[in-house]
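Human: I would love a firmer grasp of how sequence relates to backbone shape in proteins. Take your time, and here it is.
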Amino acid sequence: MLNSTKSFFYYSYLFGIFLLAASLPFSKFLTSVSELILFISWLADKNIAEKIKSFLKNKTALIISSVFILHLIGLAYTSDFNYGLEDVKKKIPLMLLPLVFSTSHPLSKNIFEKLLSLFVLTVVVVSFICFYVLLGYSGRQILQPQDASIFMSHIRFGLLICMAVFILGYFFIVKKQITIKIFIALLIAWLILFSIMLESETGLICIAIPSSVLLFRFILKTKNTIVKWSLCILFAAILIGVIKLFLFVSDNFNLSSNKKCPAASKNGVPYTTNSSSTEIENGNYVWQCICEKELADEWNKKSKIDYGGKDLSGNEIKYTLIRFLTSKGLNKDAEGMQTLSSEEIKAIEKGIPNKNFIGIFNPTARLQKIFWEFNLYSGGGNPSGHSVVQRFEFWKAAMGIIKENFFFGVGTGDVDTAFVLEYEKINSPLKQEWRLRSHNQFLAIGTAFGIVGMVWFLIALFYPLIAEKKWKDYFYIIFFTIAFLSMLTEDTLESQTGVTFFAFFNSLFLFCRKENGS
């Protein structure tokens, strides 16, 4: 039986952990407040000495929190100490949450499930709010679907949606009532549909890969022949659907016809064509059959944005207009301009370059944009502002920094400066505003702490999985897979939400349960 003092701090600990789970999807401020509550509750306990001893004996807790120590060590040889200190402050959850969770009372199954339910509920509510914004009811200017993620980067929110989907999957299995199962299935379907609307490719990949592995594993394990063959057919249907989707999108980059451009428009104005350009939009050459004089005259009659100006996304409006008309298979002249509706004019003003990207539900839009980026990049186009192909430049710069600072990196505070210098050194085609950090967590660690830091980070990442045999734990293996996949294309630990997501679920699934998942 807990005495009153213990009860107070125990319940303040519970309040802190519930507040953290609830605030993670929408409030950095409340996330920080909840971590402060957790630390004060932990610190105020009379058994603090015992807790510290317990922490020091817990190899897993020590190893995962050592990533924070790595950042502290990196301060010792950094030249920009203030920047490094800010980075260390951001990484506090990597130390705080393993320390508090590994030395506090584990949660009962009932409380653990309530905690997960609260997290899922918050994610679902936030997704509804973002959907409301996406529909345009909030009055905010939405230039691209990702802008609807108003509380955090759509990439980070995509990771939280992934966790929510798989937590719902757990409840779908354990709950017996058919009405609850149907309700949970609807929530899962909604979150996946919302991820498609948000064009969250990282989130969708993090849902698709673990789902495929789980389904394949279940097919191998089940002894029910009907279920086994039903799932095999489902698995094959999904696989064929994905292949057909890729083929359908790739067809947009095959020429739809050998259409020849006439010498002049119907008004007798000569066309220009850049025959050396291979840029394609919906199976049509972009820089073919262009009559700029007619485009400028007609556009300025229909829009308040001058033909020589920029669209709301910052691109030259004439470039967006030419791509849009190309996507409709039209010549870029007065006749083509007459086909544009007022909705299409507004879309072009926003920077939407393809007729297929209008509207809020475009299942192939993100994939088509990625194919277009590769088409542009392979033809010698500038990768600036194109989220997938510009990562090649980020990684190239990061590899250059690691090569020159092989063993110990540049230190905690000098990463940004190192990237600025490296982009200049390699004469990167990226514009200044797109010369960003590595967008790969392993390379991010490598640039700051060298090969020694990368090896240590990998040990800290994989040790719990191997030493604690967590590959058998549904929740932990799902969390681990999502976190690992995200780190391949993102600096997951370089933002407050990302580092808290990692530290919270890593520590929660390792230390906070009385019963292991299975």
